[in-house]
Automatic annotation (TrEMBL):
Gene coding for it: pyrB
Pathway entry: Pyrimidine metabolism; UMP biosynthesis via de novo pathway; (S)-dihydroorotate from bicarbonate: step 2/3
Secretion signal, residue range per the UniProt entry: none
Phylogenetic lineage: Bacteria, Bacillati, Actinomycetota, Actinomycetes, Mycobacteriales
Similarity annotation: Belongs to the aspartate/ornithine carbamoyltransferase superfamily. ATCase family.
Binding-site residues for L-aspartate, renumbered to this chain: 83, 166, 220
Keywords from the named record: Pyrimidine biosynthesis, Transferase
Protein name, UniProt field: Aspartate carbamoyltransferase
Protein role: Catalyzes the condensation of carbamoyl phosphate and aspartate to form carbamoyl aspartate and inorganic phosphate, the committed step in the de novo pyrimidine nucleotide biosynthesis pathway.
């Protein structure tokens, strides 16, 4: 039973593998003509989003509905939050309404951890500031295992804006737990302070690492979180850290290309790479529903 999912580091090897195996069972259900299961009938899942989101919010909504849960979508814009209501008072309101699980996205790192202390229900971190996004890491790991057959020993590079990426942080911790080897590739200005203490290798040269990889994951350049110049120009960034057809050709034949989305075509990744057979970008979105079904199932009823 999973009580909360706040960080990838909360998951040991056994639990992470259980989520991935359960997601595979959910994917089989999603392939049926009738996609719904009655598992969470009578349960209420609240999507509490303080930041804009398309993929993650809709993915959690689809996951909960396929498990027959009641879903409440709560957007900060147009709610009492815009009038100054605190996260704690919002949490107490949700508690009074009988929320069994709250899926929260918030611009402040640590907000899901605070929420978990205020309500009786389960809390899923759907992205908090630049901290973590654990279900994204789980769906990425699921996609790698589906395509390549294993996670143990895989050589994975996370490329680009590591500094502002909660996806990168969650992937680092989860992939290490699952036995993969992780390399961060970025300009020095886009690496976090203290990265030398992370269980990763670091490179500033994308071309030098490509021939050794099983997976290359391009990260979104999060310009909305940047209040200074972190690289000279878009053109210079793309020249040094963008994945184009020539660079894709340097990868081993079996290697796959990933991106958590939304992607900036032509900057982080070229259209021909994004749309190639090596790309798993569309699969990642589909797999996200199965993985989030697995998380909700294991939290709210699967192990009861």
């Amino acid at each position: 039973m999973i009580e909360h999912l706040l960080s990838s580091s909360d998951l040991d090897l056994e639990t992470a593998t259980l989520v991935l195996d359960t997601a595979a069972e959910m994917a089989a259900v999603s392939g049926r003509e009738v996609k719904k299961l009655p598992t969470l009938r009578g349960r209420t899942v609240v999507n509490l989003f303080y930041e804009d989101s398309t993929r993650t919010r809709i993915s959690f909504e689809a996951a909960a509905k396929r498990l027959s849960a009641d879903v409440i979508n709560f957007a900060a814009k147009g709610s009492s939050v815009s009038k100054g209501e605190s996260l704690k008072d919002t949490a107490l309101t949700l508690q009074a309404m009988g929320a069994d699980a709250v899926v929260i996205r918030h611009p402040a790192s640590g907000a899901p951890h605070r929420l978990a202390g205020w309500i009786d229900g389960s809390v899923v971190n759907a992205g908090d500031g630049t901290h973590e996004h654990p279900t994204q890491a789980l769906l990425d790991a699921y996609t790698m295992r589906s395509r390549l057959g294993r996670l143990e020993g895989l050589r994975v590079a996370l490329v680009g804006d590591v500094l502002h990426s909660r996806v990168a942080r969650s992937n680092v911790w989860l992939l290490r737990t699952l036995g993969a080897e992780v390399t961060l590739v970025a300009p020095p200005t886009l690496l976090p302070v203290g990265v030398d203490s992370w269980p990763v290798q670091v490179s500033y040269d994308l071309d030098s690492v490509l021939p050794k990889l099983d997976v290359v994951m391009m990260l979104r350049v999060q310009r909305e979180r940047m209040n200074a110049s972190f690289f000279p120009s878009v053109r210079e960034y793309s020249r040094r850290y963008g994945l184009d057809a020539a660079r894709m050709g340097a990868l081993p034949e079996h290697a796959i290309v990933m991106h958590p989305g939304p992607m900036i075509r032509g900057m982080e990744i070229s259209p021909e790479v994004a749309d190639s057979t090596r790309s798993t970008i569309v699969e990642q979105v589909a797999n996200g529903v199965s993985v989030r079904m697995a998380v909700l199932y294991l939290m709210l009823g699967g192990m009861a």
